[in-house]
Amino acid sequence: MGKESKNHKKMRKGDWIMTFSGIKMYPLDPQPEEIVLEDIAHALSNICRFTGHTNRFYSVAQHSVYVSVYASPDNALWGLLHDASEAFLCDIARPVKRFISEYSKYEENLMRVIADKFNLSWPMPEEIKSLDKRMLMTEARDLGINTRDWAETAKPMPITIFPQTPEGAERSFHDWFCVIRNKGEL
User: Fold this and answer.
1) Which of 2, 9, 42, 163 has the CB geometry, 3.0–4.6 Å to 20, for a possible disulfide?
2) Is residue 112 classed exposed, middle or buried when 0-12, 13-18 and 19+ CB atoms within 10 A define those classes?
3) Alpha-carbon dihedral 109, 38, 168, 77, rounded to 10 degrees
4) Largest Cα–Cα distance of the chain, in whole Å?
5) Are the C-beta atoms of residues 13 and 26 closer than 8 Å to each other?
6) Tell me, what CATH number does 53's domain have?
7) d(C-alpha 135, C-alpha 140), whole Å
């Protein structure tokens, strides 16, 4: 067999998904040009937190906005994008995720590409991890989730969660991104 032609595309790991904006995105072999904010906002606005075990729909996009709003200005974009990999890989419930080592590897690789795309430092700041845990407890309290047997002990935020529609959460995600990028001006 002869050499591959120069025009032959590099073999990619895994297969692709078609994103909302029409991009062929390879979640197991992501490239920065395949990561588009509109796809992240749209997908996260349609994914329910707690694998859907809430008393009403509450999106990952709205959760991400909350984490971002309470983050320091230097970490606000990290707060908004801390779950961005879920837009392409979805999420797996914590009790299952820890037993799927390959998933964690691909999730971390995708988050590194997302961080590079949006000029975020690596790894994710501890502040965001802490706020994420506090939001988890806040959401559980306000969305009817019994935390009696949870090991998580973070203090809930002093807010009440009022879930938005997917369309509203997507708009909020976009708007907040603009606020962060424009340093407070929408």
Assistant:
1) 42
2) middle
3) 50
4) 67
5) yes
6) 1.10.3210.10
7) 8
Which residues, at least 6 apart from 33, have a Cβ–Cβ distance to it below 8 Å? none
For residue 24, the cross-strand partners are: 18
pLDDT tens readout for residues 135-147: 999 999 999 999 9
Amino acid identity, residue 176? W
| Domain assignment of residue 52, yes or no | yes
Residue 145 included in any domain = yes
Domain with 100 in it? 17-181
Count of structural domains within the chain: 1
The answer as to whether 4 is a domain residue is no
Domain assignment present for 10: no
Radius of gyration of the chain measured on its C-alpha atoms: 18
